[in-house]
Each structure stands twice: as structure tokens, then as C-alpha cells.
Write a structure and sequence with these properties.
Layout (H helix, E strand, L loop, with lengths): L3 H13 L6 E3 L2 H5 L4 E6 H13 L5 H13 L14 E3 L3 E3 L4 H16 L4 H5 L4
Antiparallel strand pairs: 1-2, 3-4
Length: 129
């Protein structure tokens, strides 16, 4: 049995997944103290959403695969990901650039996906060697 708070959090995350498979929140959320969607999906925030869903073993694998596809689609040939909007904001006005986030969280989410869903068709279609 899943706790109501966890179920509500999963429903919230899934309701914010964009058509392209990603998630994105604007820094204005901190200032306004409510969720404000960004104009586009962002890699780091997509990875955060996926890590949250996978942590509680969210049952709809397609939601997670769609997010993983988004992350993979944005990766450069050299393995890096593009620099995107600021992901670290606090105290309503302080924004910090965490340069490693764009690599750490996508790698972590792909790694968790590969270990948690070893039989995934998406995983089988990827060339990870």
C-alpha cells in the first residue's frame, strides 16, 4: 500500500510531464511559492522527477521511459548535456549555477532506470557499450 502523500506527489509529477517527455519548472516558483511551469522542458528537472518516481517504484513504466527518452535525446555526441536555465534558487531571489547538475542528475537517472528496468524495450534498444 502506498502512502497518500506519495501517491499525490506521483500524480502531481505525472500531471506536469510535458508532451516531449520532460519536466520544467521556472525559477519564479520560488518567488511565488507555487509551481510555475517553464517555457520548455529541462534536463535536470526531468532527471529529478524521474528519480522521484523511480524511488517509489512508480508503476507506469511508460511515463518513466518517456522522460528517459527526453534526457537521451538532448545529450551531445561527446556525452555532455546543454547548459539550460538556472536550477538552484532559494530565498526568493538567490539563483546559483550548479554546473555539474546537468551531468550528474541525467547520468544518475539513466543509471537508475537501467538497473530498475533491465527488461525495458527502451533499454534494449540503446547502445550503452
Amino acid at each position: 500500500m502506498v502512502d497518500d502523500a506519495v501517491e499525490n506527489a506521483c500524480q502531481f509529477l505525472c500531471s506536469k510531464q510535458r508532451e516531449d517527455g520532460g519536466w520544467g519548472e521556472a525559477f519564479k516558483s520560488c518567488e511565488e511559492r507555487k509551481y510555475v511551469e517553464s517555457d520548455d522542458s529541462q534536463i535536470v528537472m526531468t532527471a529529478w522527477a524521474l528519480l522521484g518516481l523511480m524511488a517509489v517504484h512508480y508503476p507506469d513504466e511508460k511515463v518513466i521511459e518517456k522522460g528517459i527518452k527526453f534526457i537521451i535525446s538532448r545529450q551531445f555526441p561527446d556525452g555532455d548535456w546543454p547548459k539550460e536555465r538556472i536550477a538552484g534558487v532559494f530565498n526568493k531571489t538567490c539563483a546559483i549555477e550548479y554546473t555539474s547538475y546537468r551531468n550528474v542528475f541525467p547520468i544518475w537517472s539513466i543509471g537508475k532506470f537501467s538497473s530498475q528496468y533491465p527488461d525495458s524495450q527502451l533499454l534494449k534498444s540503446l547502445k550503452l557499450s
